[in-house]
Amino acid sequence: MLFSSLEFLVLFLPPVLAVALRLRGQSLLHWIVAASVVFYAFAGHWWFVIPMLMTTTIDYGVAIAIQREVQPRRRAWLLGLSLAGNLGMLAYFKYSGLLVRTAEQALVLLGLESSAAAFRWFEVILPAGISFYTFQTLSYIIDVWRGEAPAERNFIRFAAFVSFFPHLVAGPLTRHHQLIPALARIATTGIEPRWRAGILLFSIGLAKKVLIADRLGNLVDPLLVSPHDLDLTRAWLALLGYALQIYFDFSGYSDMAIGLARLFGIELPQNFNSPYKAVSPSDFWRRWHMTLSSWLRDYLYIPLGGNRCSAARHRFNLMATMVLGGLWHGASWTFAAWGAWHGALLVAHHSLPGWDRALTTFWRRNVTFLLVTLGWVLFRSHSFTQASEWFAGLAGLHGLAGPWTADVAPLFGLVAIGIVIVRACPNSLELPLERLGRVPQIGLGLTTAAALLLMNYGSKFLYFQF
Amino acid sequence: MRWFAVTVLASLALVITVNGVATLDQARQDARLRAAAGTLRPGLAMVFGGFVDERRLQKARLEVIERPRVAVFGSSRVREISGTLVHVAPGEFYNLAMSAAVVEDYVGLWSLLEKRNIRPDVAVFGVDAWVLNANHEQSLWHALAPEVSRFLGGPTASRWTRWPPLEGMLGGWDQAKELVSYTVLQVSLRDLERTVARGKRRGDDLLRALAGDLVPESATDGQQAIRADGSIIRPSSSSDPTPAQVREAVVRHVRTGPYGLVNFRWNSEAAVSLERLWREMRARGVELVVFTPPYHPAAWEALRRDPRHRAALDSTAVFLARLAAQVGARFLDTSDPAVIPCGEAEFYDMQHATPPCLERLWQRLSP
Prior knowledge:
A: globular, disordered C terminus, B: alpha/beta, five-stranded parallel sheet, four-stranded antiparallel sheet
């Protein structure tokens, strides 16, 4: 079930919210878990619920066992058990295909085609959002093991933390200290919805997704079917279009998730802070997918040694964190390459302090935007062949400009509008939604109505696949 | 917040009113058309001149025909395939092809067949390369927008076919959703504009023809006509062009820009929809046979010489072959007339083959 569907907005959300507003205590949490399970069962296949419930049950029990255990060695074993369970499940569902494809290609290279053919039956369906809730429970278990968080004793509250439907399939990646206390609070006091801030933010997210991201996708996708035909103009238009599409798609989803949580009286963490206004690669990662960035920082980069080590080790830590962060997005070596590209940008930025001081903020923003945008080629391409063809188009190797066909003008217009929005407009969480005047309200009302009309042909959210 | 809520609700109310009025008007007109379409029985043909809204006619006919055993989907390039031509008993064959048909047309027609539970045992698809060209103007299918929307936009009900009451409820929900669909709004506005501005409603021409221009199939007297099995009879006269004249026109046409292939750009959305449709049809037990309709030999030669057109035809054939293999359909690439074989004298123009050529094509498709 998509947020941008009439099924969600008419059949699911109103009854779920109406009942939730009348409940308190354990029954409210039971209701939230039940609604979230139903929501998740309609997110793809009903069996998606099974691995999620397994993760929830195992980590609930392991966390309590870790807290009870005093012997460090046994605590470490218990942590290992949880990590093996969580990462094993993620590896099976998400990365087994990549490993099998890689093994198959290696066998073909060795001239063992017949052995390679044996792998071709292997296909695993990736449950939507598994990367999100796995990382969420991992951070909880690690914090309990570190002694930085108490184990949650209330199973239903813990289940609600994992499955709370606004953030379940595509984030924001919410930590236990951001959600479990809030769930405990609403169970005690009942839900105090922030109607205005919630509905208006949801509407902004819906408009971003349906009116901009989906329209851009409709224009960009056909261009990328044959990247070898991309002339300079089209290659750059496709790249800018995709850079904007993924931003509006994912930040739109995050806005909707945060807006929905507000209707339940819960504040989810901010996920985007105008990332295309970033003035350096480091600044970009403080603004883009902020909940993942901070997760990678706290549970990967700092445990590896962070920047409190030799310069060479620091560079390695940056590269390792970004490559693994890239692979988190998808089981393909192009995602790893995208991570490596960002790792290289971060290493360069840290190795050459002061390079950017020679530039004004305007130019630092533009250079950062250009470097980040070039990385999207690797992110969007299904193979290195496709990426190299696209890069060749960007370099003008497939010609400078083809005929001005009917699809170019709308893409050009949408890209221009998108760039103005991401560079000149405030971030949606900075808008004074509680005090929005009459004219902005009417404007937002019209765009919301347009989005509701157009969403009948809505596409999936890009980040569902991660 | 009040202004926001009022704006959203007022906008949606306006759209629902426009779509609701258009739907009611359309329902009344459809009822008249259905009644008239029932008069076109086997052995009769509907003579028509000029433009006839084929989509409205097919929609009306699909409300009254018996379940066909064999159905043909495609464009005007396969519309002359009749039950008699391919030796299928009357009532067992139906030609669903329509001029300039695209994937949405296939989807809309399948949706109608499904709705009446008259799925054919065998569906034969003559797929033109233009259906996968994103730069090819495709708007006629909007006459079937609600049916297309039902399949592509809201297949909620289709998931619950084993639970008839629930399927019925969800089917109602799918229809209700159309009231807030932009696609349906576009069609509704066009209908209302036509009604208000010209005082003529969609399907009026068709109603007139069905009311007064039904003749025996053998008595069309060289005029263009539609048979009861959906196939057409082409108009003929003594001034029809000679094969040499056709060849000359064909070469000129390919040089200036062959229909549907200009600026060929892959339409991934249409490809996905086609895959979804065929998977659904196969899941419902329909046997699929897919082919690419033949070109005039001179057109084929000229198209193969141009790298852009060659790439368009090749990518279409490769895609169709792969998809057919995936869904378990039979596929034959007969764009090259030599495969059938058909000669130059067996074409009316660049891409419309005559019945003898189509008959041999049908024989090639038989397992």
